[in-house]
Here is the input.
Amino acid sequence: MTPWWVRNVWDIAVFWTIALLVVFVSLAIMRFTPVLNPEVESLRKREQQCTRCPLRAGCTQVVPGIGPSPAPIMIVGEAPGADEDKQGLPFVGASGQLLSRMLEAAKIDREAIWVSNVVRCRPPDNRRPEPAEIAACKMWLWEEMKLVDPLVVVALGNTPAKLLLRGKSTFKISRVVGQPQPADFLKEQGIVVPMYHPSYLLRQSEKDVQEATRIFVKVRNYVDARVHTVGVC
Ligand code: SF4
Here is the structure.
């Protein structure tokens, strides 16, 4: 017969093994679950329920912006594509992979920046969003921007650059690509940096991709200088 004290030692060992396992699993879950502040959580919920324009009827789900808040850099693309529509996350398809590659080469941590789009629902056949759709959806972008409070907004492609720089109908991103533009809706000395969209760069040469990466390096240097000189973020 097993002595009583052996049974007790065994019970205690089992208890502490299970307790430690619970602690380790909880810590692992916390480590890999993005912590959203309550304001971001509430904004995401409101965005996900939006039906302000006809794009919602033709897409699978609304794709809100994502990232930490505040964040020094905000990236704004045009609209979700097929992969983003399926997964509910911005920039996860081929364009998103190229974006990640350029950010990594520029030593910008994608997890430390906010990524979003001008419209949150996928337009049919990936067409450009109509002015009325942009007008309906831009309130969400402004709300995200208020929470993220970025120093630099990188506008990926003609549509976001035109919206953020209040461009006229003749606006062409090729005239301003890579040139920092002052933006009175951002904090002091905040800038908008127009860049070609990764979906366009996917069809260009590696040299063009490297040139775009150099723009991201300049963005990182600008943010680093601001953070160190005025202690922003
Ligand atoms: S595109 Fe924007 S405004 Fe239109 S339904 Fe989707 S979230 Fe709402």
